């Protein structure tokens, strides 16, 4: 077997939309398949080389059991970051001490993360993307809950008053009634409903941005000098997040990081003998590349076991205020104890959402930064998955579906919105699994974690330093993917070096400055202050905008800017070639129907919109 061949157990491995790989020996059960990766498109050697290193590309379909195993890897990467949002939101809405309330909000949030992930992978941008909780909304929620009308009342008043007899439509009535002895349930539900209304309206705006094609129109002005700072700063801006996880126990974090590197890089080519059953041949021996395909699960299990041993030996402090307490395997035992066995979220479960200008403006600022980060993640995911950059219709649809998912999340009262997770994009680089089906399985696992509360709570018990070791390498991969786009630009040009340097430096400097000067922005309007603070505190927004403005205003040839090589990835001589390159972004089963009917040629988020443009270009070239 040459070094390009891979041995993996498969069923009838094929691809979606009816496309299959070259014929292989058919079987009804697991078999060993040793085959070189399929030939890739010419004309894009860099993307092809990335694709050759993957075990499963985006359209490949692993066996069902492996899909869920690979999906579990992605869930383990993101679930701790996701559950932190409902826990924090619970404190903002005066329910931090109500563990059952926190557990119900958490179950709702996990359920919606599963729904949004499945929708995004299936009918959204159709790349392997995990939709997790968006932390960008937390500053907006915190600022909203600090307003006088929403500050937590004196909860020492224990006199019960039936909340149904009171008018709770405004914050003033809320405060007065609470001090008088309002039912505790109405206190947190009224605040959560205010958050819901802001998220729903901002998410509806995001749906319109994607559905109208506004974002797709801007893509023709976006090149490598905009993408590089945006994606790179996604990774660099999350340094503090990595530290927060790792500082709880640096030794465990380092162990986890070492294990991931050991399994994915040093032992990646080592296969393990396994016995599997075949219907025709009985038990047979195969060799499975477990280290290459399951580095995260193996590293997490081993590091988690070490934490369990050290917890039993009382090596870690049992003081909840101590940093290394989060390295204990029983640190989140209360969450498991208080979680419901079954929980089914539904729209309006906390009551009718309320709306205000303050909540909408704050959430809208977070939504804009989330959109920018998601676009960067789409490009990073396409590149790390060995696919061509996403076309405009896929980006439009991805943003619209992300907004739709957040809209539903607000309606059911999850306490937050969803966005693409950069750490899961980076994880593709060392797990070598880019299969869309595996990420759809991850969405189903998230959904089950929400419905079966005990199962979700069990996964949340992963020690924080274990997750810290995983996110370090994931964020590092995102950063390197961003920098890899520099290959398209002329790095001998002073113009390009200046743009890259300024965008990266300002993207780090301005948010860092605002963290140390909390009240430096004062326009006299609270809502405007909130919007500016959220936007300017987001590194990828600052760096991306600086790179975008300078790249499109400073004189420079298209070759110097890297636009020629950049567009070569998504351009071709004919419309048929373009469609072949971008088939991975097409909607399943309906694309041919959409292309045949002209009424769908004008809808910016459908693949037929792209086909309509190709038809016009081909006609124009024919006339010439």
From TrEMBL:
Organism: Crassostrea virginica
GO cellular component: membrane
TM regions (residue ranges): 75-93, 105-127, 199-219, 225-243, 250-276, 296-316, 438-460, 466-489, 496-514, 534-554
Membrane-related topology note: Multi-pass membrane protein
Keyword Cell wall biogenesis/degradation attached: no
Gene Ontology molecular functions: transmembrane transporter activity
Key words, A-Z: Membrane, Transmembrane, Transmembrane helix
Annotated segments matching region Disordered: 1-24
Subcellular locations according to the entry: Membrane
Entry similarity comment: Belongs to the nucleobase:cation symporter-2 (NCS2) (TC 2.A.40) family.
Pfam families the record matches: Xan_ur_permease
The protein's name in its UniProt record: Solute carrier family 23 member 2-like isoform X1
UniProt entry tagged with the keyword Membrane: yes
Source organism, top-level taxon: Eukaryota
InterPro entries membership: NCS2 (IPR006043)
